[in-house]
Specification:
Blueprint (H helix, E strand, L loop, with lengths): L5 E5 L3 H12 L3 E5 L7 H4 L4 E2 L3 H7 L2 E4 L4 H7 L9 E4 L5 H13 L3 E8 L13 E6 L1 H6 L1 H4 L4 E4 L6 H27 L6 H16 L1 H11 L10 H17 L8 H12 L8 H7 L2
Parallel strand pairs: 1-2, 1-4, 2-3, 4-5, 5-6, 7-8
Antiparallel strand pairs: 6-7
The structure holds NADP nicotinamide-adenine-dinucleotide phosphate.
NADP nicotinamide-adenine-dinucleotide phosphate binds next to helix 1 and helix 4.
């Protein structure tokens, strides 16, 4: 437990402001700092204390949450702060390598360190039914001691003592999402100019992607067993053949296939390597250097 009920929050961008509001509403004594001081003003009415510098904000509470733009801004903001005895929770998005370096950096300055990756957008913060959560990794003692406070804005998922683990989970999910929205962009482009409006098409797209997402478990089972033909219902030979239809349709509709072709090229390589009965799990092998 954080006996003082005190939290310091550095960063009042869209995400930081959403976090601040939930801690204030839950009765925490919140000290905030933001590089552009005016962004703190609306929070004063809700009871936030505003620090004149990041160093002053850090001094105000044992628990220091950092939600800035990127790793470089974290280093800059905390340059003059005394971190001795502080519990630093950095939920700024970064790479696993940056998280590990930041953990060493904070530990060398006398702090305990927990890294985080936020799986939510600001309107989901403080809304339990939204499904928002944050991956955490690093000091398990810190996590356990501040678990209640950390659980106020969003759910918590602790993913191990390696400080880079939260960022890796975060980025893996974001990468899958990026490819999914690539597919969504292509699908809307195909339908553009037809009598089907985007709003009419959207429910079909959501329904299909939701149905297909279940196959992720099948890929996982194949990767773990090492048998990439396990439970395959749509084999690579058939899918590669089908790719020609996808590409030709793009051409007929006057749509660039540039979002599709990199994945298709990997499927073709795996097929050419002699794996017609697999699904797509073998593509993972081709990617891992
Ligand atoms: N918004 C989202 O949907 C979302 C979702 C998940 C995770 N995140 C992550 O949450 C973090 C914050 O995002 P956000 O949406 O709040 O971004 P934002 O609205 O762009 O705010 C950026 C914040 O970083 C501060 N900042 C930037 N450079 C700085 C520097 N050199 N020194 C000190 N402060 C600096 C800004 O201060 P000023 O006000 O002075 O510019 C502001 O407080 C990011 O790491 C982001 O990836 C965001």
């Amino acid at each position: 437990m954080n006996p003082d009920n005190k939290i310091t929050l550095l960063g009042l961008g869209a995400m930081g402001t959403a976090l601040a509001r939930t801690w204030l509403a839950a009765g925490y004594e919140l000290t905030v700092w933001n590089r552009t001081a005016s962004r703190a003003e609306p929070l004063v009415a809700q009871g936030a204390k505003v620090a004149a510098s990041a160093a002053e904000a850090v001094a105000a509470s044992p628990l220091v949450v950092v939600c800035l733009l990127d790793d470089a801004s974290v280093e800059q903001a905390l340059a003059d702060a005394d971190l001795t005895g502080k519990d630093v929770v950095n939920i700024t998005t970064g790479t696993p390598g940056q998280a590990r370096e930041r953990a060493k950096w904070a530990t060398a300055r006398g702090a305990r360190y927990l890294d985080g990756g936020i799986m939510a957008v600001p309107p989901m913060i403080g809304v339990p039914e939204s499904g928002a959560y944050v991956f955490y990794s690093g000091s398990d003692v810190l996590f356990e001691e501040h678990r209640d406070a950390l659980a106020v804005p969003a759910g918590t998922r602790y993913v191990g003592e390696d400080p880079g683990s939260a960022a890796l989970h975060d980025v893996a999910l974001l990468s899958a999402m990026t490819a999914m929205f690539g597919g969504v962009s292509h699908a809307f482009a195909l339908m553009r100019g037809t009598s089907v409006t985007p709003k009419e098409f959207a429910p079909l797209l959501v329904e299909w992607l939701t149905a297909m997402s279940g196959y992720v478990h099948g890929v996982a089972a194949q990767l773990e067993s090492g048998d990439y033909t396990l439970g395959v219902t749509s084999n690579l030979a058939m899918m590669v053949q089908g790719n020609a239809t996808l590409l030709r349709t793009a051409e007929e509709q006057g749509v660039s296939a540039e979002l599709l072709t990199p994945f298709m090229a990997l499927m073709e390589r795996r097929l050419a390597d002699g794996h017609p009965d697999e699904g797509t799990a073998g593509v993972t092998d081709l990617l891992k250097r």
